[in-house]
Amino acid sequence: MNHEPPDDFNTQAGDMTPTAGIPTLALNDDHTIPVVGFSVAELPPEQTEAAVAAALAAGYRLIDTGSTASSAEAVGRAIAGSSIPRGEIYVTATLPGS
What we know:
Blueprint: E1 24-26, E2 32-34, E3 38-39, H1 45-58, E4 62-64, H2 72-81, E5 90-92
Parallel strand pairs: 3-4, 4-5
Antiparallel strand pairs: 1-2
Helix pairs in contact: 1-2
């Protein structure tokens, strides 16, 4: 059995920068949002900042906070501490009861 990747395999598969071909969804205001994101909904607040910083460094540009507001400050600190322009990052949340 051959365990080598095919010749056309993207060796940058872990690279999720906008140029990596991550699918996006067009919004009503002509912006696009990545369809692949990183969720902090199940993380304890004390782990959130480091996890978001690592996700941003790995190329994620969509951060989902779920329905908890407890992670908002940590997510904000991680975004502020990154060198990524804020306009390239989307933060989503789930409204209670939805």
